[in-house]
Amino acid sequence: MKDVVGSHDLLLVTLDTLRYDVAVELAEAGRIPNLTRHLPGGSWEKRHAPGSFTYASHQAVFAGFLPTPAAPGPHPRLFAASFAGSESTADGTFVYDTPDLVSGLAKEGYHTVCVGGVGFFNKQGPLGSVLPGLFHESHWTPEFGVTSPHSFENQIAHAERVIGELPAGQRLFLFVNVSALHQPNWFHLPGATREAGDSRETHAAALEYVDRHIGRLFAAASSRRRCFAIVCSDHGTAYGDDGYTGHRLGHESVWTVPYAHFFLDPAEAAA
To answer: I need a labelling partner for 224 at 20 to 30 A (CA). Which of 150, 237, 264, 265 fits?
Structure first.
């Protein structure tokens, strides 16, 4: 990452609440082709979330603690704050001397942009302003939120406008919190009803919805120069697994998440 930071634009996409098992099943079944074509080896990496709900997990991610490979470590990190004795800071790690990754990238000349999704990014109160407040500019409207059936399309359209207005030479760190997977997601599955509610099947349909549109985001992010992209879940969620529902709890369906990072070349914009 020491070679990437400063020469590439950066994209971080959190597919909020996406379960690892659902992501793997859809990739193996060919149901998310636009994502799968970018996954190294065509597969998601199995990782452990740094938190069991959005706020905790993103605080960790923005401190440089991305989801951890689901195997004994230590595992070298891409980003890390300067910290004496850190066992996960390696030769290739981008090390910053600010409190968080966002300000560390800003110090390197990046313009930092947040396109929020779930309520912790809505800026409608002090708590919902903490995470977006890390960025130079942050954006949220109800049309980006969990109740909009077209949330991801709306987020992408806004990101495209932001990118289009930047000077060509300005490096960009773009963060998008995708709300579509989060409850409520029943409206993404044809025939599902509000009364029946959300299920593992509607969760999968929401991922298919995201996949249909994510190519536009990748194209925009790589339209100015080569882009390094990270796509992952911040945590999973339970749909009756062992009697559990939701997240902010210690269950395998919550702690295990899909992760991938890869490069996007400018040619992607014309694909």
So the answer is: 150
